[in-house]
Amino acid sequence: MAAYRYPRPPASEITPRGLYEQRRTFMKGLGSALFAGALPGSVLFTSASSAASLETERRAFSTDESKTPIEAIKSYNNFYEFGTGKDDPKKHAHQLRTDPWSVQIEGEVEKPGEVTVDELISRYTLEERIYRLRCVEGWSMVIPWVGFPLKALLESVKPLSSAKYVAFETLHDPEQMPGQRRDIIDWPYFEGLRMDEAVHPLTILAVGLYGEVLPNQNGAPIRLVVPWKYGFKSIKSIVRIRLQEERPVSSWEARRPNEYGFYANVNPNVRHPRWHQATERRIGEDRRRRTEMFNGYEEEVAHLYEGMDLEKHF
Ligand SMILES: Nc1nc2c(c(=O)[nH]1)N[C@H]1C(S)=C(S)[C@@H](COP(=O)(O)O)O[C@H]1N2
Ligand SMILES: [Mo]
Q1: How far apart are CA 104 and CA 99, in angstroms?
Q2: Which of 81, 98, 189, 236 to mutate to test the pocket of ligand 1 (most atoms within 8 A of CB)?
Q3: Could you say which architecture CATH assigns to the domain 19-304?
Q4: How large is the C-alpha radius of gyration of the chain?
Q5: Position 135 confidence tier, pLDDT thresholds 50, 70, 90
Q6: Segments of 14-163 assigned E as strands
Q7: Contact present, 174 and 181 (Cβ < 8 Å)
Q8: What are the residues whose beta carbons fall under 8 Å from the beta carbon of 236, sequence distance 6 or more?
Q9: What are phi and psi of 209, to 5 degrees?
Q10: What confidence category does residue 57 fall into, taking pLDDT thresholds of 50, 70 and 90?
Q11: N or C terminus of the chain with fewer C-beta within 10 Å?
Q12: For ligand 1, is residue 61 a contact (CB within 6 Å)?
């Protein structure tokens, strides 16, 4: 695989210095402003604002389970654009230039357009959300993300009533992403959510973790996080968001429809064709633990799927 080797300048050399520092300083400065769930602009799951429902929301926004150490979060990744090994993203993702970066928003909206990540970071109140992430492969982590609700961005472009789904696309640039020169999936990485899933208060766009700028291997500069779904739904390094009437077909679904459904809700009762889904190994632990329905977010999201056969719509 010599063809995929590159000289590796540090990130600070390949991103314009000023912008790089600016983004870092901004994130660092968040410090005390960051807390889970109770900021103005955070949306309630229920309209009742009793102390009990606020407490439920706070717990969903930030699990009190032990956080996975930052080193593990940064060195055990799936980011096939940089190779299929767990350590490939850490080794190769520094090649990705994340500054400047903008996201195109298009489709069934009144106000399509392009917005830079720096603009998004200054426009929205960033919150810390400590979410479980469960990979379909059977490992999981607890990650303190920094981000803002996807709903806020979607509302700003004024979706038309014909907008039923939201499709997301990762950067396509085989120069920077050596994995894209290999036939792993149909590039660019493509994902989708139903509109009600996209505007759910648990769904965020993350720009950081552990209070720092998002490391490249975790999907810098901006990635989706949908905590009740298998990790692969949480698409990284997003350049395009399209609201549309027809249901998108994700890259994984296109490649292996019998293994990767559109919904991909964490469901320990449905077997993946090649393995069971009943348990998972938390990175850093030896024992396996039981996988929870909707990754532990059943109370918050089960209503979205009422009446649906979740064995068929897996
Ligand atoms: N563009 C892109 N997004 C992606 C992937 C990928 O290969 N490419 N892998 C997915 C999978 S399978 C998982 S489990 C999570 C892993 O996120 P993490 O590396 O930040 O833990 O990213 C998801 N998003
Ligand atoms: Mo995954």
Answers
A1: 15
A2: 236
A3: Alpha-Beta Complex (3.90)
A4: 19
A5: very high
A6: 102-107, 113-116, 127-134, 139-149
A7: yes
A8: 79, 81, 170, 189, 218, 219, 220, 223, 224
A9: -150, 150
A10: confident
A11: N
A12: no
Q: How far is CA 111 from CA 10, 62, 169, 181, 223, in A?
A: 37, 33, 19, 34, 22
**Substitution candidate for ligand 1 out of 81, 234, 238 with most atoms within 8 A of CB:** 234
In this model, does residue 8 exceed pLDDT 50?
no
Q: Is the pLDDT of residue 274 over 50?
A: yes
Q: Confirm if 140 and 209 have CB atoms less than 8 A apart.
A: no
Q: Can you read off the two tokens belonging to residue 157?
A: 């472009």
Cβ–ligand 1 distance for 180 under 6 Å, the answer: no
User: Are the C-beta atoms of residues 138 and 289 closer than 8 Å to each other?
Assistant: no
β-pair partners for 224: 205
Per-position DSSP letters for 178-217, written without gaps between them: GGGGS-SSSSSPEEEEEHHHHTSTT-EEEEEETTEEPPGG
- Beta-sheet pairing, 127-134 with 139-149: antiparallel
**Across residues 47-52, what is the average pLDDT?**
66
pLDDT in tens, 200-244: 999 999 999 999 999 999 999 999 999 999 999 999 999 999 999
| Cα separation values, 194 from 25, 197, 226, 278, Å | 35, 5, 12, 26
Q: State mean pLDDT over 131-151.
A: 98
The mean pLDDT value for 150-163 works out to 98
| Pairing mode of beta strands 102-107, 238-244 | parallel
Distance CA 244, CA 267 (A): 27
The residue among 228 and 37 whose pLDDT is bigger is 228
pTM > 0.70: yes or no: yes
So what's the pLDDT on residue 10?
Answer: 42
Give yes or no for residue 68 CB within 6 A of ligand 1: no
CB distance 206 to ligand 1 below 6 Å: no
Q: What 3-state DSSP class applies to 114?
A: strand
Domain segments of the chain: what residues? 19-304
Q: Which two tokens stand for residue 314?
A: 């897996």
